[in-house]
Amino acid sequence: MNHKFLENMNFEEQLWNNYFHLAVAFITQDTLQLEQFSHGKCIKILNKYGDMRRLIGFAIRDMWYKLGQNKIRFIPGMVGPILEMTLIPEAELRKATIPIFFDMMLCEYKHTGEFKKFENEIILKLDHEVEGGRGDEQYLHLFEAILIECSSSYPKIAKSVEMFVSLIKGLLEKLLDYRAVMNDESKDNRMSCTVNLLNFYKEINREEMYIRYLYKLRDLHLDSENYTEAAYTLLLHASLLKWSDEQCTPQVMQTEFQSSQTHRHLKEHLYEMIIEYFDKGKMWEEAIGLCKELAEQYEMEIFDYELLSQNLIQQAKFYENIMKILRPKPDYFAVGYYGQGFPTFLRNKMFIYRGKEYERREDFQAQLMSHFPNAEKMNTTTPPDEKQKNSAVQYIQCFTVQPVLEEHPQFKNKPVPDQVINFYKSNYVQRFHYSRPIRKGSVDPENEFASMWIERTSFITAYKLPGILRWFEVVSMSQTTISPLENAIETMSMTNEKILAMINQYQSDENLPINPLSMLLNGIVDPAVMGGFAKYEKAFFIDEYTRDHPEDQEKLSRLKDLIAWQVPFLAAGIKIHERRVSDSLRPFHKRMEECFRHLKVKVEKQYGVRELPDFDDRRLGRPTSMLRSYRQMSIISLSSLNSDCTTPSKIPAESFELEVMSPKATESVSDENGRLIGSQPEVKMRKCRKREKRSSVVLADKKPSELPDVKCLSRKYEFMSDTNLSEHLDVPHKTSVLKQMSFASRSMPTIPALTLSVCCPALEETNVSQRMSQTSIPPILETDKKTLKRKKMNQIFKTIYKPKQPEDGKCTGEQQSDVSEL
């Protein structure tokens, strides 16, 4: 071959290509892999035949270097076979063949000024080879050392080679971690390694590999019934697509979506699947946002009103679910893995885990320890020392943390329902804290509150939860100390909110058992049970404390204000308790009322009177809970302790409503999962045909210049999006009116059409005349028009103004005259 088929005139590329592939196939066959045999058999083969892999490998190396200027013809085609050969676990063979990679890089660099083809090919092939079982730590170190040494003689390319080696080293480390846990019983470890890989491919802009691991992660979530996380994972793929009829490239396609040919079809298909996952995960807020985006496409782009109607019905069902279906708050757990015995992606790191519904810390910890049977459980919440971190022993630390509600500007000074607020208390959270009591100074055995300081540790995760994982790594930790007075203020604020939250629950649900309300109220009003706030009075409302802490005057006023406000809240709760209590518990209620009367006299005398409107009051429009009214007046967070603490002595009557009006029941047919059915199957059968026809239906007078000016990111920057999509609620500056309304307007009241017509009678007359002029309505005489209009106006005012009726059911004379005048 060297003599007859190497010269340029006689060079046979196919012949040389066949030679290299045949030689590599020979040395990689299973029968020559000596490390798979027993030690005795391996020695016997070596003594009789030698290691033929080494001989053929050296021959391949020599033949490669003889190619000269023809080497460029085999780049990147021969990168995969050469990589497969170098991964054979034979040290001398690796040392002899790894330098071929540098020769390939140098050859491509001389022809093009870079070696991107080689880099792309080796990344692609390395992923498949390592997943197939090849590669180890020794190969990683040899690869790095040999290429760095080879590049030292070429200063122009040395920097680029160093960056390439660092890239491959990082990839190989993550691939080896992934392979190590592929068959692991712990799906959490497999998910962590998968996320590490897809993040790596996102950073280096390898879209095809990124999407490949997205779907591996999606499948792992579905196996674990993590529907919310599966939805966020697919949302990452959908974010790479555009609402356009551009043909999908192979990089963004998956085998299960081969029927979707355009970006629009694929994105629509993905959104439907994601909405289904969010529905199963009870994340209806996220599902509604995607429904609105689809609705805009159906209404404004493809004009498919049948799909639009189904979409709006689905949105309505999600809104109803938010208000009616109970969603248990998940607990969050801080987990630390300390010691050198853990894999690198866990070693000496702390994570915040999102628990499942009703999952207790004990159950979560038991399952966690089962994945690491040799680990020791740490019984303290303090960080470990360096000795424990460097030890070969595995230490696991697990404790419950509290999510911190982030401020949402769209809710500020708006009557947001408690069902919505409660959702945001445990979702879209990135900051968590853990509090533990500490003692400072002398301890009063009769009043521990005077010396109870709180050490609060705050944790910030890499991304918001929930996200593409049920956990994220802690990237920041900080500690603060809360004084006993600040702790008292915070405790009183939480107690008041707890009372009001329970009042709202009992007002909206007549079937709730009375026991929780009884225990809460009695624990506060009866000093024999918990002592109430008397302990705070003895600790802080004394001359000695005021003299020693003059800087706390504002905080003391704040605490007194909270105590004063607790009285009307307790009164409202006791009034509900009186209506709902059974006869057997009537003596208990009498005792509680007696305790409350004494408490009320004392508090109002010392701290003033606070009044709430009668909670049988009603007003037109949407009801607002007492809890939301109180929130507008109270300062809950510690960061606001230094603000003005003056509180009005009376809340406006129209600021809250305890009686919640139940919405009218809608007639619909639902399946066993609660999803609407009926005409839906018929519409779904037509979806495929409609999608096929969309691209062919084009208006003849539509010009390209008339298309809206939409600013799109380049493919590169569009792909380099944030991995965690739980922050995608931010509305872009340049977006449609529908998207701007999609989130912020959820709590805005609407004006019924009848109310609007009364406020603007001229508009009503115009609307009536327009409807009368339609050809579908038969002609009506002028007298009939006046009669019809008078009846309609009477009906309007009857709807808005319902006169009070006496017991006989007839209106009073004054009311009749008012109606006749109208």
Automatic annotation (TrEMBL):
Compositionally biased spans, kind Polar residues: 813-822
Family note: Belongs to the DOCK family.
A cellular component term, taken from the record's GO annotations: plasma membrane
GO terms classed as biological process: cell migration; myoblast fusion; small GTPase-mediated signal transduction
Domain of life where this protein originates: Eukaryota
Chain ranges of the DOCKER domain: 201-612
Region (Disordered), start-end ranges: 801-822
PANTHER family: DEDICATOR OF CYTOKINESIS, DEDICATOR OF CYTOKINESIS PROTEIN 2
Gene Ontology MF: a single term: small GTPase binding
Gene: LOC103049846
Keywords for the protein's UniProt record, in alphabetical order: Guanine-nucleotide releasing factor
Record-given protein name: Dedicator of cytokinesis protein 2-like
